[in-house]
Amino acid sequence: MVILDGKKISNQIKDEIATEVTQMKERGEKVPHLAAVLVGNDGASLTYVGSKVRSCKRIGFESTLKHLPEDTTEEDLLSLVNDLNKDPEIDGYIVQLPLPKHIDEQKVLMAVHPDKDVDGFHPTNFGKMALDMETFISATPYGIMELLRRYEVDTEGKHAVIIGRSHIVGRPISILMSQKGKAANATVPLCHSRTKNIKELTLQADIVVSALGVPHFLKADMVKPGAVVIDVGITRVEDKSKEKGYYITGDVDFEKVKEKASYITPVPGGVGPMTIAMLLKNTLLARERHRGNA
Amino acid sequence: MVILDGKKISNQIKDEIATEVTQMKERGEKVPHLAAVLVGNDGASLTYVGSKVRSCKRIGFESTLKHLPEDTTEEDLLSLVNDLNKDPEIDGYIVQLPLPKHIDEQKVLMAVHPDKDVDGFHPTNFGKMALDMETFISATPYGIMELLRRYEVDTEGKHAVIIGRSHIVGRPISILMSQKGKAANATVPLCHSRTKNIKELTLQADIVVSALGVPHFLKADMVKPGAVVIDVGITRVEDKSKEKGYYITGDVDFEKVKEKASYITPVPGGVGPMTIAMLLKNTLLARERHRGNA
Hints:
Chain A is α/β, with parallel strands linked by helices.
C-alpha cells in the first residue's frame, strides 16, 4: 500500500514554482501576485486564507489579503471585486467561501473576471474545463489529478466511483477523470444522496473518490481489495482533549481501509495541501497569460 | 413497452410555442427571430438547417438563413458572427456544424455571444448548465430530458449508463441526469471508447443512453429487462433500394431491444425531432430575455 503523500508532492510543486519565480526575478519580470478576499472571521476560512498567504511568501509570489468585516454589504464586496478585476498589479484572486448569509455567493463569483478567477469557479472557466479547453481548473480536483499523475496511478479504462456531486469537487473530478488524457480515461459513475446502492457501486470501483464531508463514511467493507482511495472530506470534529479543541478527519475510515487499498490519501496531508499548490500554479498561469497579452 | 414518441412530443412543444407567439403578436410584441449560418453544401447539414427554418415558419418565428459558400474564409465567417452578435433583430442563432476543415470550429463557437448562443455550445453556457444555473441547454440533451419528463419516466436513484462522451450529447446528458430535479437524480456512469466492460455496465442499467453513432451497437443481450433505452445515434446507411440512396438508423438494435425495454425511442422519430423543438424553445427564451433587458 502506498500513501499518496499530498504534503510531499505539494512541496515539490511549490519548489518548482519557486524556481520559476526566481527566474522571473532574474529576468527582471513582475512576479505573480495573488489576492485573497476574506469576509468575516470564520475559523476554518482564516486558517485556509492564512495558509495561502504564507505559501505565496514562501515561493516568492506577492500576495494581498483583503480582510473585510462580517457586516460588509454585497454592494461593497462587488465594488472590491470590480476593483480587483481592473487592478493590473493583481494577476489572480480568490474570494474565500463561505460568504456571510446576507451576500449572494453566486452573484459575487459571477462578478470575478474569468481571466483572474484562479479558483476556476466562474461558469466560463468551468465550461472550458468540461469542454476540455485550456483554463483554470479549480484547485481541489486539479490537485487530485496532479497527485494521481505524479504517482503514475493507472486510471485508463478503470472504474472510478465519485461520491458527492458538489460543484467544487465531485462534479468537476467526475468530468476530468472521464476525459481523455493522463490520470483520466476512466469510466466514472457519479454518486450522490439519491443513489440507492452506494456500497454495491464502491465495491466495483478500482478508484473511489469520496467528497461527502461525512467522517468515516467509507468503511473497509465498502472497498475492493487493491482499490485506489482518494479522501476529499475535511471535517473538524470537536475534541476537548486536543489543544485546538478539535481534530481533522476525512470521509474514509483510514486505519482499516488502508489495509485493503493499493494507494490511499491521508487526511490531513493528502488532497488538502495539493489544493494550495494548484491555486499557486493557476496564479502562475494567470501571470504568464497576462504577460503574453501585455 | 412504451415508445417515447419524440415526433408527437415535439409537435406538442411546437404547438405550445406557437400559442405563445400568437399571444406575443396580439400584444404587438416582436416575435422570436432565429438565424442559421450554413457554410457549404453538406447533405445532412442542408436537411437539418432546412428543417429548422421550416419549423420556425410553422410556429410563427422569423427566421434568416445565411448560406455561405464552401470556400468562405474563417475571417469572413467570424465577421458574420460578429454582425449577428450586434444585430438587434436576431434573438438567437446557430452555426451549423460541421464547418469546412479550413475553419477552426472552436474559434467560431467561442465568438458566438453567449446571450445569442441558442445551441448552448459556448463554454459560458455549458458551464452554467454544469453548475445548475439558468442557461441555454444544448438542444439534444435538453430534448432527451424533456422527453423523459413528459413521459414521467422515473429516474430518481436509478442507474443511468451513458455511452459516448461527446461535448454535445454524452457529456452534457451525463451531467443533467445526475443533477437534482425532474428526470434527474440518477447515478450516472459515463462510458466511452476506453471503457473495458460496457456490456457489464449496460446490463446493470435502469436507463441506457447511447450516443455513439455506431449502427446497431446496443443489442438485446446488453440490456436489462425493463430498461429505458434512449437512442441518440443517427447514422445514414447507404442503401440503393431507397429513394434517397440511404436510410437512417440509430445505435440500438431496435426490433429486438424493444421486446425487453420498458420505454424506448425510435430512430427516426425519437430524440431527433426533440432537438429542433428545444432549439425553438431556447430561441423563445432568448427573445424573452432580450425583452426583459430592453
